[in-house]
């Protein structure tokens, strides 16, 4: 497994890390393919999610496993950052430009998650999960 450093925080400072890429256990069929964050009691309601990079929105979608998602292509590395299980669809559209810290959505719980986390996944330019 590759090690990727998240360049900037995608969550409010009061959110906590709850699962890391590669973690195993009963919640995943093989291993966890993302990094999970969850709000704490002091996190504001409907906590915002922020872009971890400068880049371009390349996908805004909903699917049966990962719920509401947005995917951003990183201008510097060429990697893709996918935000999963967002409360609602992102207000952004494919082709929109974002800067580090731009709000891209709201933390929530959609599809295969029964609490209020958010999952960040990353892929290289060939679709390989990092």
What would you say this structure looks like, in words?
With 130 residues, the protein is an all-beta fold. The protein has one domain (16-123): Glucose Permease (Domain IIA) (Distorted Sandwich), CATH 2.70.70. It is built from no helices and 9 strands. The protein has a 7-stranded antiparallel β-sheet with strand order 1-2-9-6-5-4-7, with no helix packed on it. It has a two-stranded antiparallel ribbon with strand order 3-8. The protein is globular. The model has no long low-confidence stretch (mean pLDDT 78).
* Low-pLDDT ranges: none
Helical content class: under 10%
What count of structural domains? 1
Please give the largest β-sheet.
7 strands, antiparallel
Mean pLDDT: 78
Second CATH tier, the architecture: Distorted Sandwich
The run of helices and strands is EEEEEEEEE
> Could you name the CATH homologous superfamily?
Glucose Permease (Domain IIA)
Task: Sum up the structure in keywords.
130 residues, mainly beta, Glucose Permease (Domain IIA), seven-stranded antiparallel beta sheet, two-stranded antiparallel ribbon, globular
How would the blueprint of this fold be written?
Elements lengths: L15 E4 L15 E4 L9 E3 L4 E9 L3 E8 L5 E7 L10 E2 L4 E4 L11 E6 L7
Antiparallel strand pairs: 1-2, 2-9, 3-8, 4-5, 4-7, 5-6, 6-9
